[in-house]
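thread: overnight batch results

M.L. [08:02]
morning all. the overnight job finished for the chain we discussed friday. pasting input first so we're all looking at the same thing
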Amino acid sequence: MSAVEAKLAELGLKLPQVVPPLAAYQPAVRSGAYVHTSGQLPMVDGALPATGKVGAEVSPEQAKELAATCALNALAAVKSVIGDLDKIVRVVKVVGFVASAPGFTGQPGVVNGASELLGEVLGDKGVHARSAVGVAVLPIDAPVEVEMQVEVAD
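M.L. [08:03]
and the structure it wrote out:
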């Protein structure tokens, strides 16, 4: 077990299986020293635990938890490319998309779910640049979606 997966276990979390693509793309690809993930939905055992807009059908607190699930799914996608999460040098950038009800402006707080999880699991290697974007709708009515770019060592 990698040190990263040991830290996940210490936090009561387990790295999930890679979420299969919903269309014509790969969950993650490597280019040089970087792994870029596709947008990861908060899938758990092949299903979304919640659907709808944040600020309407989904509370900001629930959406924050779902963003953490997205980050876990992104780590699984990274592992599928590099084999060992201990090869992560740092998370460079996180982009979070939040399906937002009209008037909802708490996107940064929702995406904190992903950022905080990465910090807890990776320590200083999890500190990253970030965008938190409100959108009208996400695939299969997901409340949140997260993608990230990670620098890795050989």
